[in-house]
Amino acid sequence: MRLLLVEDEKRMAQALCEILRQEKYEVDHYANGLDGLAAIESDIYDIIILDVMLPGMNGYDIAGKARQKGIRTPILMLTAKAELDDKVSGLDSGADDYLTKPFMTKELLARLRALGRRNINTADGTLCYGDISLDTNSCTLLCTTNGQSVRLSEKEYHILEYLIANQGQILTREQLAVKIWGFESEAEYNNVEVYMSFTRKKLSFVGAKAEIKAVRGIGYELRCDDV
Fold first, then answer.
1. Co-location of 53 and 112 in the same domain
2. What strands lie across the sheet with 211-215, from one edge to the other?
3. Contact at 8 Å (CB) between 3 and 20?
4. In terms of residue numbers, what domain contains 146?
5. How far is CA 140 from CA 50, 181, 186, in A?
6. Domain check: are 141 and 85 in the same one?
7. Are 119 and 161 within 8 A, CB to CB?
8. For residue 226, what is the DSSP state?
9. Do you find a cis peptide bond into 102, omega within 30 degrees of 0?
10. Per the structure, how many domains does the chain have?
């Protein structure tokens, strides 16, 4: 799952990025409101963590502009303000949840898990397609017809997560590269090919009928024609 953190307090941003990456999230960080809005408009993120007080543009305006552009990504707003009116302003601007600084790491992670479940429309933390089930907590791939399971690597998990969340769509190599490796990564498209091969082998290992099909000249699509 790829997160965007828009936070200008350097020490807090560094600490949050470290914590989130330890929890196996992919994280991109921006310290300026305008840069944060530009990143949000790419619409590649699963959850946005957005500070209120930012240089360039405040969090309320960022959330409002994102919603005006039709971006539905869940937003968790962070602020040092604890007054009810401030919370109402954040929620009215388009935020889905609100966390007041200082906060406990456990609470932050719990709220992110809740937003993540809401975003993928599942109550128990699983993504399903055809005869496969992906446990978003343990990164485990399960074939529902035979019970065979296998643990996925971080990149394999993110590839399948992205394909399942966009089932029925063809995802280009460019989309996959940006989503899995991020804008600032130097990963080349052959990285997509390599990890796509690994992911296909895991699907084959569990005996799934669901498979990743290459669409010549375009990209990849998850299909399960026999279920």
1. yes
2. 171-172, 219-223, 211-215
3. yes
4. 126-223
5. 30, 20, 28
6. no
7. no
8. T
9. yes
10. 2
Contact partners, residue 217, CB within 8 Å, separation at least 6: none
For residues 1 and 46, what is the distance between their CA atoms, to the nearest angstrom? 6
CA 139 – CA 149 distance, rounded (Å): 10
- Asked if residue 141 and residue 108 are part of one domain, the reply reads no
Give yes or no for a contact between 5 and 120, defined as CB atoms under 8 angstroms apart: no
Query: Domain boundary at 88, 119, 150, which?
Result: 119
Which residues are registered as beta bridge partners of 79? 100
Here the tokens at position 110 are: 């719990």
Q: How many CB atoms lie within 10 A of CB 181?
A: 19
Please tell me the pTM assigned to this model: 0.65
Q: Band the pLDDT of 17: cuts 50, 70, 90.
A: very high
pLDDT digits over 122-135, tens only?
556 688 889 999 98
pLDDT on residue 63: 93
Q: What is the mean pLDDT of residues 132-151?
A: 92
Query: Which tokens hold the place of 216?
Result: 């010549």
CA distances from 12 to 19, 78, 80, 183 (A): 11, 11, 12, 22
User: Do 102 and 77 meet the contact criterion of CB atoms below 8 Å apart?
Assistant: no
The set of residues, in sequence order, having a beta carbon less than 8 Å from that of 75 and lying 6+ positions away, is 47, 48, 49, 50, 63, 66, 94, 95, 96, 97
Q: What is the pLDDT of residue 87?
A: 64
Which residue has 């209120």 as its token pair? 52
Q: Helix crossing, 33-40 with 59-68: angle to 10°?
A: 20
pLDDT, position 166: 81
